[in-house]
């Protein structure tokens, strides 16, 4: 599904922050991406999400060489990827329901075809009574759950999550992890970037460890 | 999701809270209307449309008046019969008039009488003038059938045979000057409209960049969920097209009201010396229905230019936002 070969990344003329990355993300796999703060986890997620281009090497995503993709093709590929960012990135002028339904809206689907699905998912993540609330009045945990719901609603083939449990208490963190595990069981490849060792210890999964710009894979 | 629910795959975190009936619907626009500070842009587009409409209206008025003058002047030929030693000017004038009567294309020949010639000179020489004491040429005005080819050379030759001191003036030089003046006015008008359009494009471009900067988080999220540039641009474009149309209707409407009001004022002053001066300069000060159609089309054009300029800026800006 994802293949990196000798990938390097630098910002401007600065030092190379990711070096010689060689790894694959198989379909239906589950992995944690970890490493100390500033190791480049978010940058690697951005490479995977196509919002950054590598300065060298080959990134192959869904059998496409990303260096050859047009903007429209990138937009189409992103519809197959879900992403949860640390800062949630919810749209403040839209209700929780509208934020979660946004991927379907962008796909041009008729609301009646997905409304029940969105409402069900919002209930599953505990936002059943917050559907009409605007993000500014949601708590950090609620925002986190809304962001996760938005990322998974369209059943992406690849889910990227950057510190998805960073804003919630340990109990809720465990529940969210279980949500990701169940999503993985339903066929989605999951990459969770975290430096929360306690979270990783809860589930036996492949670990991608970034250290000094290089990636070490522990199966 | 219900399939997964039945399998008990997801944990329903909401079970801890009472569920409420969902009334949720997609009600919010993708790009909130309030996030685009459009009032200033509407005012700018309105001012630009008003200026462009005033210029176009003025050009249309001048062109219409000039073509009226031209058709009046072009349908007349003036012959001057100058007094010459040893010749009877009255006889020469009569001979010229008779020669002109036989010229094809001439529908009316009117020699000015002595009194009429004296009246023509009255503003300069005063009243009570005796033409007997002055070598004043006699004027004969001929009206030409409009639209018929007219052989001016043949007329000159006939007139010269009838009276060697006579000259024929078909006002060509005057018409050429009028044509140049009208052309210059139209060119100046087009130049002003061009400047107005350029200023509109620049204003819209700045407004679009501002709106995009203010809505950068929305654009980024739309990119995250797989929206293409075209999808995003279209949502912004609707706002700018609406703002452009509001500005165009406002500016164009005000200009139309101005011309309509001016036409009414010209009507009220009709018959007065001031009204006559205006009528001489600008005709009836009426734009005619076709003029108003041109102004409406121009307002729509400026709204369209607003949308196109916004679209170009949107795509240029979207390239910079990931």
List keywords for this structure.
heterodimer, A: 219 residues, 6-stranded mixed beta sheet, 4-stranded antiparallel beta sheet, 7 helices, B: 322 residues, alpha+beta, disordered N terminus
Q: Describe the main β-sheet of chain A briefly.
A: 6 strands, mixed
Determine the strand fraction of chain B and express it as a percent band: 5-15%
Structural class of the secondary elements of chain A?
alpha/beta
Strand order of the largest sheet of chain B: 2-3-1-4
Which regions of chain B are unreliable across 5 or more consecutive residues at pLDDT < 50? Answer: 1-21
Tell the overall outline of chain B: elongated
Range of helix content of chain A: 25-40%
N-to-C SSE series of chain A? EEEHEEHEHHHEHEHEE
By DSSP, the count of extended strands of chain B is: 4
Task: Explain how this protein is built.
The complex is a heterodimer of chains A (about 220) and B (about 325). With about 220 residues, chain A is an alpha/beta fold. Chain A has seven helices and ten strands. The radius of gyration of chain A is 17 Å and the shape is globular. Chain A starts with a strand and ends with a strand. Chain B has helices spanning about 1-5, 40-75, 90-100, 115-125, 150-160, 170-215, 215-225, 230-270, 275-280, 290-320, and strands at about 75-80, 105-110, 140-145, 165-170. Helix content of chain B is about 65%, strand content about 5%. Chains A and B meet through helix 2, helix 3, helix 4 and helix 6 of A and helix 1, helix 7 and helix 8 of B.
């Amino acid at each position: 599904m994802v293949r990196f070969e000798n990938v390097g990344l630098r910002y401007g003329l600065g030092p190379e922050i990711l070096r010689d990355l060689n790894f694959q993300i198989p379909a239906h796999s589950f992995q944690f991406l970890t490493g100390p703060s500033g190791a480049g986890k978010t940058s690697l997620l951005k490479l995977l999400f196509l919002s950054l281009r590598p300065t060298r090497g080959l990134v192959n995503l869904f059998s496409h060489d990303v260096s050859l993709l047009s903007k429209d093709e990138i937009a189409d590929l992103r519809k197959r990827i879900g992403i949860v960012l640390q800062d949630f990135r919810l749209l403040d002028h839209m209700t929780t329901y509208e934020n979660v339904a946004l991927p379907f809206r962008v796909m041009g689907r008729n609301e009646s075809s997905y409304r029940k699905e969105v409402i069900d998912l919002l209930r599953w993540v505990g936002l059943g009574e917050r559907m009409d609330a605007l993000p500014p009045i949601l708590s950090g945990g609620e925002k986190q759950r809304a962001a996760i719901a938005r990322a998974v609603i369209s059943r992406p083939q690849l889910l990227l999550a950057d510190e998805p449990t960073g804003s919630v208490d340990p109990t809720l963190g465990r529940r969210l992890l279980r949500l990701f595990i169940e999503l993985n069981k339903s066929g989605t490849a999951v990459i969770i970037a975290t430096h929360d060792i306690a979270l990783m210890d809860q589930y036996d999964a492949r670990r991608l460890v970034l250290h000094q710009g290089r990636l070490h894979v522990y199966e | 999701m219900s399939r997964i629910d039945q399998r008990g795959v997801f944990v329903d975190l909401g079970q801890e809270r009472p569920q409420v009936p969902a009334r949720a619907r997609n009600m919010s626009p993708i790009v909130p209307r309030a996030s685009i500070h459009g009032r200033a842009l509407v005012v700018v587009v309105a001012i630009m449309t008003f200026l462009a409409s005033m210029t176009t209206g003025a050009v249309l008025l001048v062109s219409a008046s000039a073509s009226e003058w031209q058709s009046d002047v072009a349908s007349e030929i003036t012959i001057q019969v100058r007094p010459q030693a040893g010749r009877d000017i009255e006889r020469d004038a009569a001979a010229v008039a008779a020669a002109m009567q036989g010229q094809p294309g001439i529908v009316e020949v009117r020699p000015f009488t002595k009194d009429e010639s004296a009246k023509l000179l009255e503003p300069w020489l005063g009243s009570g003038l005796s033409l007997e004491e002055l070598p004043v040429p006699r004027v004969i005005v001929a009206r030409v059938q409009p639209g018929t080819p007219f052989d001016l050379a043949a007329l000159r030759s006939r007139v010269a045979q009838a009276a060697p001191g006579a000259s024929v003036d078909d006002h060509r030089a005057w018409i050429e000057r009028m044509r140049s003046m009208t052309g210059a006015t139209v060119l100046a008008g087009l130049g002003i409209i061009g400047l107005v359009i350029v200023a509109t494009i620049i204003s819209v471009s700045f407004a679009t960049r501002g709106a995009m900067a203010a809505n950068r988080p929305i654009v980024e999220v739309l990119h995250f969920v797989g929206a293409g540039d075209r999808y995003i641009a279209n949502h912004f474009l609707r706002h700018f097209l609406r703002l452009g149309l509001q500005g165009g209707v406002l500016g164009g409407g005000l200009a139309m009201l101005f011309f309509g009001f001016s036409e009414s004022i010209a009507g009220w002053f009709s018959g007065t010396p001031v009204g006559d001066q205006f009528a001489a300069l600008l005709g009836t000060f009426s734009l005619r229905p076709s003029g108003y159609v041109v102004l409406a089309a121009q307002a729509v054009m400026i709204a369209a230019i607003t949308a196109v300029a916004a679209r170009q800026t949107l795509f240029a800006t979207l390239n910079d936002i990931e």
